[in-house]
Amino acid sequence: MSGITACLAGAQETWITDYPAKELLDNITRNVQKAIAPEYQPQCQIQGYTWGDCSSDFAVKNKNSFSRILAADCFWMPWEHENLVRSMLYLMDMSPDARVLAIAGFHTGRAKLAGFFDEAEAQGLVVEHIHEEDVAGNRREWAKERDGGLENHTERKRWLVLAVLKRRTT
Description:
By secondary structure, this protein is of the alpha/beta class. It has helices spanning 2-8, 22-35, 57-61, 81-91, 110-123, 153-156; strands at residues 14-18, 44-48, 68-72, 99-105, 125-134, 139-141, 159-167. The chain is built from six helices and seven strands, in the order αβαβαβαβαββαβ. Helix 4 (81-91) packs across helix 5. The chain is globular.
């Protein structure tokens, strides 16, 4: 889990969010308790959050307050890309150094990921860097489509897309 990794890497404050279902949040809580030493757990907050929400207590309190947003494997629902990007822009701080780190596997298809990046750019995020990396650490350029869209399902699961996005400044 990316939020646990951020906590273990020494982030001063980390919010791990997921859909506000008790079962999901309880599971995240158990994972945090198992993976992070008790003295560091207060730096790791867990919060239910629905993408696109700009009116909940959590959203209002944290408007423009996160310098880094790590989005990992949350792009598989294209109908939610607009809400996901809206949340990113709402919660990301206004500093020119603020970034969204996007990481995802191709297990649900390349087209779904490409749609996220199109939506991000349409709403005001710019892709600063993007590449693909396989399980052995080999890198290649990002492509919205490979092999005419007939990419081998087993082969594509060996790859991730890694991207850094920032706010458009003009």
